[in-house]
Amino acid sequence: MLRLRSRRFERQTRHGGFPLKKADTVIIGAGHCGLAVSRHLARRSVDHVLLERGEVANSWRTERWDSLTLLTPNWLSRLPDYGYEGDDPDGYMDMPQLIQFLDTYAARFSAPVETRTSVTAVTPDDAGYVVATDQGDWRALSVVIASGHCNIPAVPRISADLPAEIEVVTPMHYRNPDQLADGGVLIAGASATGVQLAAEIRASGRQVLLATGEHVRVPRIYRGRDIKWWMDVAGILGLPYNEVDDIRRARRVPSLQLAGRKDKSTLDLNALTDAGVEIAGRIAGVNGSRLMFSGSLANVCALADLKMNRLLNTIDEWATENGIDGEVDPPHRLDGTRVPENRRLELDLSTGQFKTIIWATGYHADLSWLKVPAFDARGRLVHDGGIMKPPGLYVLGMPYLRTRKSTLVDGADLDAGIVADHLTGYLADQFAIGT
C-alpha cells in the first residue's frame, strides 16, 4: 500500500485535542459506487477506508419501496472483478437480492467498511481533509464522495400550498399501498418511479391520477432483446460525457419509463391507461383547494414518442451495420401514446376524492456536510467527470458523471477506475512532495 506519507500529513495527528484516525483516502458511502472505487484502490495498493452511515447498501435497504426491482437485467449488474452469479441472467433483482449481491461483493474482497458511521463534515486543512463523523474523526489526503444523488426527495415548493388534509408522500418513504390513506392517489411524475407506483397502487384497487411532465418512453423488449441490451451493445449507455452537446441538460433527463417485471412487459402511459389510471398534464399550480394541470400533455407525449422512435432507428441502424438483423426479430414500432381527448385541467381537493399526493419528481444529493468550495453560484457540485477542482476531492454516482450509465450498477466500474487512476497519481505527487 501507499504508506509513504508526506511529512505534513504525519505531523497533523490531532484535531480538537483528540487523536485522528488516518487513511490516505476516505470513501464516503458503501453502496455500489463506493465498493467499486474501493476495489480499484485495493488493486492499486492504496490505503483507504469506506465510511457508511448504516450498513452496506444502506439506501437500498431503508429507502426503497417493497416491490422495487432493478430496471436493468441481472447480467448488467457488473462491478470490478465481480458480476451476477445466479441462474436468471435476464431477470431483474429485487431489493433483498441486490442487497445480498452487494453484501457478497464487500465480503469477497474484504472491503474496509466502517458501518454505522455518519459523516457530519468534510473540511480542508493544510494536510488534506478532516472528515468528521459521529464515531470519531479521520484525516485523509483525498476524499471520494460516493454517497449517491438520491438522498433528498425533490418536492416542489407548491407542495406547501396544498390543503392540510392532503397526505404528502415521497418515494423514499413509500413502501406499499396499504400505508396510504383511504381514497384516490395523485402521483406527480411519470418517469420510472411514477409509472411503477401508479401501476402498483392502481392494482390495489385505488383510483389513481398520474400528472405527467417530460418523460422518456421505451419498450422493455425490442426485436426480441431487452432495451438495455441494445443500449449497451450499441454504445448508447457508454456515450462519454464530453461527447454530449449539452451535458447539463443530459444530467437532468428523466429516467426511462421502465419496470423490471417478470413478464418483461412494457410499462408506459398506454399500459397505465389500459389498467385504469387517469393521465393528466404536469401540475402547474395550486389555488386554494384547486390543483391546476398543464394543457401541454399532448405535446409532451408526442415528443416522447418522437425521441423513442429516434432511439429505435439508431438501434436498427446499428443492427444492420453490424450484420445481426438475421439474429433478432424484425423492427417494429409501438402505437403512439393515447392522450385523453377530455383530459383533466384541474382537481378540486376539497371533495375528498383524492387523499394523497406522491411526489415522484426526483431527488437531490445531500451534500450539506461538504464544507469545501466545490459548488457553483446555484449550489451545484462542480466536477469534470468526477474529478473536482479542490485537490484530492472526487465524486461518483452522479447522473451522467462520465457516461449515460453512471448511476447504474454497471456504470460504477468505468467511473471508479478513472477516478482511482487520477487519485493514485495525486497521492504519488503528495508523497513525493513530503519526502
> What is the CATH homology-level superfamily of the largest domain?
FAD/NAD(P)-binding domain
CATH topology of the largest domain: FAD/NAD(P)-binding domain
Helix segment tally: 10
Q: Give me the secondary-structure category.
A: alpha/beta
Care to count the β-strands? 25
Query: How many discrete domains?
Result: 2
Span between N and C termini?
Answer: 16 Å
Shape: globular
Poorly predicted parts? 1-12
What does this structure look like?
The chain is α/β, with parallel strands linked by helices. It has 2 domains: 7-151 and 365-434, FAD/NAD(P)-binding domain; 155-362, no CATH class. It has helices at 7-11, 32-43, 58-62, 95-108, 192-203, 227-233, 247-250, 269-274, 297-321, 412-434, and strands at 14-15, 18-19, 21-28, 48-51, 78-79, 82-83, 113-114, 119-125, 128-133, 138-145, 152-153, 167-169, 184-188, 208-212, 216-217, 221-222, 225-226, 256-257, 278-281, 283-287, 290-293, 346-348, 354-359, 363-364, 393-395. Strands 3, 4, 7, 8, 9, 10 and 25 form a 7-stranded mixed sheet that branches. A 5-stranded parallel sheet has the order 12-23-13-14-19. α2 crosses α10.
Q: Which features does this protein show?
A:
435 residues; single chain; globular; 26% helix; 10 helices; disordered N terminus; FAD/NAD(P)-binding domain; 2 domains; alpha/beta
